[in-house]
Write a structure and sequence with these properties.
Elements lengths: L2 E10 L2 E11 L3 E6 L6 H8 L7 E6 L2 E2 L4 H7 E4 L11 H11 L6 H11 L15 H13 L5 E5 L7 H14 L4 E5 L3 H7 L2 E6 L2 E6 L1 H9 L3 E7 L5 H4 L5 E8 L2 E6 L6 H10 L4 E7 L3 H9 L1
Parallel strand pairs: 3-8, 3-9, 6-7, 7-8
Antiparallel strand pairs: 1-2, 1-4, 4-5, 9-10, 11-13, 11-14, 12-13
Helix pairs in contact: 3-4, 4-5, 5-6, 8-11
Amino acid sequence: MSLSISQLTKKYGSQKAVDAISFEVSSGGIVGFIGPNGAGKSTTMKVITGFLSDFEGSVSVLGIDVREHPLEVKKRIGYLPEHNPLYVDMYVHEYLRFIARVYKLTTHVSSQIQLVIKRTGLVKEQHKKIHTLSKGYRQRVGLAAVLLHNPDVLILDEPTTGLDPNQIVEIRNIIAEIGTHKTVLLSTHIMQEVEAICNRVIIINNGKIVANNDSHAIKIESQKNTTTVFVEFIEQCSIELLQQIPHVIDVVNVSEKKWLISSSQNDDIREHIFNFAVAHKLTVIAMQIQEKSLEQAFHDLTR
C-alpha cells in the first residue's frame, strides 16, 4: 500500500481543517484529490509529506509511519506544493544538481539529472536561468526536481495553476506518463484534468471525505439524487422565474437562452418544465435529460 490514512484529524486552534478522514491508495496510478478552497486538501498533503506533525490519527507511506520516521518518508516522496519553490537565479541544470546534493545522491547523478530533464521536456532549457522561463517551464523544473531522487510516491498540489491551456495539456501529459509507473496523489480544480488522467477520485468537503471512487461511479451515484434537464427557449428568461418550477434545486445559465435545470426528484421533470413554459408563454425549442458531468457531481457534493 503506497498511502494509508486512518482517522486523520488536524486542528488549527478550535477549527478542524481535516476531520477524521480515512483512505488508502494502492501502488501505481493517479488519484485525484479534489475539493473547494479550504476543504482540507493542502493540509492533508502536508501531513502526508511530513511538513505538519501535530495531528491526530495515523498516516503511513509505503508502510512507514509519517510521525515516527518523517525523514524516511521524505526520501520516498516527491512533493510539489501549490506555490512551486525555486531558486530562480540558478540555471536549470545547476538547480537540479543542487537538489541532488540536498537528497545526498552520490551515484549516477549526471545521468539521473539528464533523465529527468528529458522526461519533463527541459532539454533546450537546461542551460537557461529559471527566472527567464515561462510559468509552464518553471512547473516542469519543479516536476524534474521532485522526480530526481526517483521517489515511489508523488504528491502534486495544484501543478497546473496559472498555466495557459497549452501548458496545462503539456504538464498533464507528463503527469499521466509518470502515473504509469509511480503512485500520484493529484490535487487540482480542473475537472477535465481529473477525468482525463485519474484512475480514482477522492472528494473532500469541510474536512470530510464525501466521495471516494472512480469518476464514472461518482457521477452515477450523484445522479441518483437529482435529475438535470437541458432546456433552450426562444425567449429570454431569468433564473428567478425558472426556480419557481416545482422541485427545482438548481438553475444554471449555459448561454443566453440555454439552461440546465436540476430537480430534487428522480422522476422525469420534463413535463413540469413544459407545462411551466406554457403557463409563462415560453417557447421550448430543445429539451433533454443531461448525464451529469464530474463538475456537476462535485457541485452537488460540495455545495
